[in-house]
Amino acid sequence: MTGRTGSRSATYDGAWHAIVDFLRTAGVDVMTGLPSDDLALLDALDSDSPRLVVCRDQRNAAFMATGYALQAGSPGVCVVGKGPAATNVMTGVLEAKFSGAPLLVIGTGTATDRRSGTAFQELDQMSVLDPVVAWSERVDSAARLVPALEQAWRRAQGPPSGPVYLELPEQLLTEQITRGRPWQTDIEPVGGVRFDDRSPVVEAVRRARRPILLVGGGTRHRNADGVVERFAAGLGAAVFSTASGRGCFDEDDERFLGLSGLYLRPAAAQLWRDADLVVTLGSRLEETATFGWPDVADMPPVVQVNVDVAGFSAEWDGHRVLGDVGDVLREWIPVLEGAERDEAWQERIAEARRRLRSDAVVPADGEPAPGTVRVARLLSAVDSVVPRDRILVQENGLQDMWSYIYPYYACAAEGGSIVPSEQTSLGFGAAGSGGVFLAAQGKPVVAFVGDGAFAMVRGDLATFAKERLGVLFVVICNGGYGWLQSQLGGHRRAGERFSFIAPGAADAPGDVARNFAEERDVHQVAVTDEAALDAALTKAYERTAAGTVSVVHVAVDLSDAPPGISDIEGDFTAPDPA
């Protein structure tokens, strides 16, 4: 190759050499994936190239890159081969789409002169991935690589941000690539919004006396200066978040009352029925976020703020504001000065928070099932042992959902939370935690996952160990897929010929935990007694500080379901007791 990063022009020995130089110029420090058989990518890497984390499973690689993107706020990069590699990576791309994560997937494809339907691993990968990406291009010409790569980078970042796919036919891997100008990697943002003094949405916000503020995942990386907390205080709002919005608002704030929808607790539910305005920030108002809301006819106006028109829900009455969440709130805060507030509403917010906290007290002398640990006690131990700036990466199985219910778990301002999207792809949290660790800038990363999800990432534990991704895995061991097993119980079908947990696991969950605790180069321990929990977590966390992957397998009883979740069925309806 002639020319380097920052040069006005360059000639490259193949597509991967050009791509590595572009990524270096764009400031990319890591990429994940499983290279194609030709290994041309490896030839393009040198000492100052982005770090390549080689995974054993393309799905895990995409999960990892998505976790990186969500934590970093900049694109994750995932590189894969062709054919089955494209189908394997698809689940991770799906998760990135519904999480709004900027993800650049670069894959190889069949050479243009060999496309016949009979070439090795030939597949119409564009048709496979097009439904789950925001943009895609197959680069059939060497002259198209530079502009296509720059376009992919821009489209991944949006708005709206999301996954994109760039395909490299095999002939480009060795074909000379010429760049005749500097790389274009930066996008100049258009900042600020303005509202007329007579704006109806401004007037609606100003008049609200019993407001609710719902913080969604689109607020991520837009609240570094605490503008959301300041707006909530000026508005006098009760504050809730969606699952993906956790970590965007300080949960120690006196106005925070937990998650909306599926995870809403009774102590705060009446506020939703009595509110006179709901303001939502960066949420598509998916089903889990709106589950249990009043009927449309009884719902107060909903003001939706989103950076993308496709993010607006058409289900609810109210104004829609197109703009960056932070910019909009900075414009609104001065408008709220001197606005009257309902003091009774403020007292109700305070009382709801007191009730939430008292309802979630875990009795120190409570009795778990023999050989198990209560999940609420486990979350309390994580809170005590791991510093408050930790980032909790979660799954969405039956007992994982304890961590979604405030205040059994609370996310501090200095910490963070990464959860699966509405797709709840199994294994995302387990594998994605590696990418979160890569972007966490030294903060502790805890993956709170079930044993079913952990089994899906277990093949890549060697990757975590080799790359010294010091994640603390807290694995809830109930013997398999607790959510599906609980559905069998809800329909009174448990004990039939089908089961979603390991044989005997319901009677001896401790044995299941101990069976997992065997892996080279990974610190693992099984906990079947609450008395041993704190010491086991402390030792495991200390090992992560040295870059060692640590796994604490905790035996739990399947009946220890989160409050309010046991009555929920697959599509969020209560099972028919008959």
UniProtKB/TrEMBL annotation:
Residues 201-331 form the Thiamine pyrophosphate enzyme central domain. GO terms for cellular component: acetolactate synthase complex. Residues 17-127 form the Thiamine pyrophosphate enzyme N-terminal TPP-binding domain. InterPro entries: DHS-like_NAD/FAD-binding_dom, THDP-binding, Thiamin_PyroP_enz_cen_dom, Thiamin_PyroP_enz_TPP-bd_dom, TPP_enz, TPP_enzyme_TPP-bd. Keywords: Thiamine pyrophosphate, Transferase. The keyword Heme does not apply. It holds the Pfam family TPP_enzyme_C. This is Acetolactate synthase-1/2/3 large subunit. The lineage of its organism: Bacteria, Bacillati, Actinomycetota, Actinomycetes, Pseudonocardiales.
